[in-house]
Predict the structure.
Amino acid sequence: MRTEVLVVGAGPAGITAAIQLKRSGIDTIIIEKDRVGGALLNAGWVENYPGFADGITGVDLVKLFQHHIDNVGVEIHHLEIERLTCDGDYYLALCSGGEEVRSKAVIIATGSTPNRLNVPGEIELEGRLVFHELRDLPENFGLNACIIGGGDAALLSTMRYH
């Protein structure tokens, strides 16, 4: 694939950059290894975002972002970049599945990664009993949960499960 700008990450920052570039007539694609929305998928309630004074769930806001991306015509490719190099005047992203993306510019908007506890059994239980992000919890998780951490995620977790 070829594009003028490659955006790595489909969270709020990557989506915003891609929409603005596309609106400016600049060919842009997004590479996202996981789901559109990034950490916004962890937000139970967003009320500090312009235009949503009464609040909106993070998941619903991501749906609006997806609709906006579709309307503008930004392509999202669900791949993982394994290597990014500069090849003269171009960047070359080598992706999973053997895909290659050549671009004149790259915007890296890969977001944040939650901290791990580094306690015995954490890795073995990850995805079954230990979760590092709210978005990874199964719908039928139940009401008993131990929240370790702080900020919005811990507050919203407490509200969601009690």
